[in-house]
Amino acid sequence: MAQLWGGRFTKETDKLVYHFNASISFDQKFYRQDIEGSIAHVTMLAKQGILTEQERDSIIAGLKGILADVESGRLEITEEYEDIHSFVEANLIERIGDAGKKLHTGRSRNDQVALDMKLYTREEVQETEKLLEELLEVLISMMEEHLDTYMPGFTHLQKAQPITLAHHLGAYFEMFKRDVLRLEDIYERMNYCPLGAGALAGTTYPLDREYTAELLGFAGPTLNSMDSVSDRDYLIEFLAALSTIMMHLSRFCEEIIIWNSNEYRFVEIDDAYSTGSSIMPQKKNPDIAELVRGKTGRVYGALMSILTTMKGIPLAYNKDMQEDKELSFDAMDTVKGCLALFTGMLRTMKFRSDVMARSAMNGFTNATDAADYLVGKGVPFRDAHSIIGRLVLYCIDKNTSIDSLSLEELKSICPMFEEDLYDAISLKTCVEKRLTIGAPGQEMMKRAIREGKDFLEHINAERKKI
Length: 466
Description:
The protein is mainly alpha-helical.
């Protein structure tokens, strides 16, 4: 078919060049955004007297008909068109005649695709944020449920100090909360409309860009026409945020994979989120967690791709920027799928509180508290540290825990130990006496849960305003 830009050319484009140049195979995702932007554009053109009301109404009716037919399957987007803009405009002209040729008045494909990409990305930001909120809701619920579920906290994958599962989950709540805040920040910064920037230098038509922006739900129009058509910062920021989300999911998945192992047995993953082995009947593999962990690199790749594409592009628009779509679309879909599956896996997961508590007791996680006990008896901390080190070696040699030693054994190592040591180093005491902000003590955890619920209520209220 004839190209929208074919007037300048006397020779047909080589077919290999045409297919290499075409973007319809992936930018057809924009059909709704392209039509939405076109409806706003012609509404503004009529308001400014550039189109008649009759032309406006005819074009809008044609555009809505195309949208309805595409969504019902009556009209197929095929690769005979170079891009989604060509598809929409060609079908509009075919349906309503010459009035359809006025659709492109006062705009370029450069500002048109900039608008489509921004509208699409804006929706993806909102959808991703909603999935994060669902994950945060699950985490808050689990934190409330596991205020008294004791477990070892780790550094270097070594058992360190006793905490609660609520506290451990709360760390991920904070990570995903920051992810939500990043998305809100990105949304606010990107929410300006590029339509009306033309190819790079605006247009001589008396466009009302503020009105167009208002129709499309933007905070206002972009303020430099060259930047308008060449900006993909918002997409880079979004992909960076998606990469951070995947990093957080991957860390969590890594822990679940470890906790699911025979050596730990902290969790049991629901059958719906596990698979078996084709040869080993005893296996129950954490495949969803492993796939989420594995797909993280895929999302990182999309970020590195767009950064590399954009790094050497002079102002304003260049065809390189067509490469902003395929990997970005894949990354967006990947993160949404991972969030949905991870949330389902987490919601159905069972925690072995008895195994967790036993692991904390047998891992000398209360050794620091035993040292603090001696400091409270007047022993200098450095001496107390050395005494508890010898005590731990004694327990390792006897294959036992500090809690299980008799008072006589304890006194043989340090005469300052008394009966009150057992209460001082119990898991409950070790956790509950930590009451500084951010610590695992129950009072602080209840405060953290209240603040987490307030955060979720706030962002739900803010989303309803959009």
